[in-house]
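Hi Q.,

Before the meeting this afternoon, I wanted you to have the iron/sulfur cluster prediction in hand. No need to reply - just skim if you have a minute. The sequence and ligand are here:
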Amino acid sequence: MTHPMPSSAPVSSDAVNALNESERKRIEAKSALFAPPTPVTEDGRRELVGLSREELAEVLTEIGEKPFRAKQLWHWIYHQGVTDFSRMSTIARPLQAKLEKHFIVGRPSLTTQQTSKDDTRKFLFRFRDGQEAETVYIPDRREDRGAVCISSQVGCTLSCTFCHTGTQKLVRNLGAAEIVGQFMAARDSYGEWPSPKGDTPRLLSTIVLMGMGEPLYNYENVAKAMKIIMDGEGIALSRRRITLSTSGVVPMMDRCGDELGINLAISLHAVRNDLRDQLVPLNRKYPIEELMAACHRYPAASNSRRITFEYIMIRDVNDSDAEARELVRLIRGLPAKVNLIPFNPWPGSDFRPSTRERLASFAQIVMDAGYAAPIRMPRGKDILAACGQLKTQSERKRQAESRRNEA
Ligand code: SF4
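Predicted structure with the ligand bound:
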């Protein structure tokens, strides 16, 4: 496949839009092939989590109820976190029973939950069709708040060579109910209901779409889920507290910025196309120049909302001083910060993490240029909650268990 436009030629914004539009259509058509199953229980009840407000009003109309009930239900589902219709005290008992008959307010079921020595908590959730994905809560070490890392797909189509998750084929996209459900179930685990309002501190205070999968290859479901989470009458998490991490699906970045306005993180990991082509093969389609141009266009970026560049530090591969200087050149003019992440070794990978000295020297060059460059040490190592290792280990564990059972 050729690149949508030559990487160095000046191209008008109309031409960029036209090319992006056709690419977007292609990506959306491909995404539809991996659509999640309809969220309906075996006894035919419709899942209400994951419906937009309009869809909620529609399903209520279908059972002969007035659409205004949607507002009431929204409050109970997303503000109060109630899953049992009989606890929705502002709804009359006969209607509670009717809702129970037709609908369900569910959660993904919890297969395993582990809490690390550093308090990172990893959840393995199972969905109705038996597929599973992992979610991780990473508490802030100094304050009562933390980030929930959410998965957007089961498996991944991209094969970033440093990522263990990337060795698992894409099984399917997660639906809006399953994406919102991960966050709601994580909040169940900490009892964080009703949803804190306004400036009231939240324990689960930010969302990072950095779990399994490429969120921009499942944009429709991710966008729907984020709109539900941002809705001011429900969970009401500000767009400033949500970060989507992409390997660089350029045509979808504009749409994400325009429609959601959430923060952006880029899995960069290399500053030259020849190396990035190997580490992040999606680069062959959307090379660094196009990626950086899309970052410059990203509407939600500002000095208070910087674009985060994730950079896995791999010994003798991408961690030289020259590469640090090139990184600075690439991000010049952008409101940006750089997260430096020492590579997390996994069986079968020849890569090794950069040395402490290399990390320090690289970080210093970036900081001297005026950019924040924190070195992110892996969290939850003892429970295998490190980036890109989650589902794989769970699968391997289950395979070992089933082998034992068969023996
Ligand atoms: S880094 Fe992200 S996009 Fe790349 S293979 Fe891993 S999960 Fe997929």
